[in-house]
Specification:
Oligomer: single chain
Structural class: alpha/beta
Shape: globular
Helix content: 40-55%
Largest sheet: 7 strands, mixed
Order of helices and strands: HHEHEHHEHEHEHHEEHHHHEEHEEH
Radius of gyration: 21 Å
Strand order of the largest sheet: 1-7-6-5-4-2-3
Number of helices: 15
Distance between the termini: 42 Å
Strand content: 15-25%
Length: 350
């Protein structure tokens, strides 16, 4: 088949734009030979379950799924009673970027809280954690956080521990959307045992799609009382892959020799390079601290329009002229420098 796009092109819109790491492609080729049992009974999925236990602790159970929205829906259903509600930031992915899937598919009510940096604290959660035992109010049952947040910020280990403690004191569960967990681990210079197991996170989604994989996420249940429900919930949410070996094989290659962390380290480094290069350009204001692989900035409307003709990226807040630029596992220093040069030129003409 002929290539239908410029395979030298690059963008700063989303890490979803990036391709697949060569080691992941090779892992798919290796897994492709011969026949293997379906629906997770294959040797790759069995090996992945053991790998997840090695990384996250013996109580961790892994459930590979197709995508992030499906992972969030399935995980939240496992954690919630039918009358339960989810507390989340007003900028949370499940609130802003998953349509009505949480409400329609999972049947949950979202209780949102305004934040300045996308992060929740026990004090903020307390604004919605009330009405326990009142039949007229949806019962707060889960607190949703993401690593990294939609605003590019990272939770520290201490912040996660504080949230987990608060949740458990109020008979709630803590769920982490880890679509960019690798980026957060690198940014916080820690490991998954410390960030997840030791802080008592109840369930998380380990995201690979945004960090070098073709497709696939993995729900990780950290508490025994949710393990039994997961196979059935994964099935009814259309997240049970018949050829699951091809998701699991990707994860095994991704986790081997800490490849996932190396890829995230590059995307974080390139975002830091981009932010540092923009700091001295007149008429550009960095609006948020760059902690992982997202850079937020305000620049003139005319400059944004010119840049959109050359590069893919998202306007984040059109009211103030804020944009979001994302780097990826395969972003290079040369690409960052070329983008910065284009930004300088666009701003100079504004």
């Amino acid at each position: 088949m002929n290539c239908l796009h410029d395979n030298q092109s690059f963008a700063f819109a989303s890490d979803n734009y990036a391709g697949i790491h060569p080691k992941i492609l090779q892992a798919l080729m290796v897994a492709n030979g011969g026949h293997q049992p379906a629906y997770g009974a294959d040797v790759y999925t069995i090996a992945l379950r053991q790998k997840i236990k090695q990384l996250f602790g013996e109580k961790a159970e892994a459930f590979p799924v197709f995508n992030g929205t499906g992972a969030n829906i399935t995980a939240l259903q496992a954690l919630l009673p039918r009358w339960g509600a989810v507390i989340c930031a007003d900028s949370a992915h499940i609130q802003c970027d998953e349509g009505v899937a949480p409400e329609h598919m999972a049947g949950v009510k979202l209780l949102t809280i305004a934040t300045t940096d996308g992060k929740l604290t026990p004090q903020l959660v307390a604004k919605q954690a009330y009405g326990f035992g009142t039949e007229h109010r949806a019962q707060p049952a889960v607190v949703y956080i993401s690593q990294t947040t939609e605003l590019g910020t990272c939770y520290s280990v201490a912040e996660i521990r504080a949230l987990a403690d608060y949740c458990h004191q109020h008979n709630m569960k803590l769920y982490m959307d880890g679509a960019r967990l690798a980026n957060a681990l690198v940014a916080e210079n820690t490991d998954v045992r410390t960030m997840i197991a030791d802080t008592d996170v109840d369930m998380l989604n380990l995201g690979g799609t945004k960090n070098g994989m073709l497709q696939g996420e993995c729900i990780i249940s950290m508490c025994a009382d949710t393990h039994a429900a997961m196979p059935y919930l994964r099935k009814i949410n259309a997240q049970l892959g018949s050829k699951m070996r091809f998701i699991s094989a990707q994860f095994l290659a991704w986790l081997e020799d800490d490849l996932w962390l190396s890829l995230a380290a590059n995307s974080n480094l390139m975002a830091a390079r981009l932010a540092a290069s923009l700091a001295g350009i007149q008429n550009i204001t960095l609006t948020r601290k760059t902690q992982a692989n997202a850079v937020f900035a305000v620049l003139p409307a005319a400059a944004r329009t010119r840049l959109h003709h050359q590069f893919h990226f998202y306007d984040w807040d059109e009211v103030i002229g804020e944009v979001r630029w994302m780097t990826s596992f395969d972003t290079t220093a040369e690409q960052v420098d070329a983008f910065v040069a284009a930004i300088r030129q666009a701003v100079a003409k504004s």
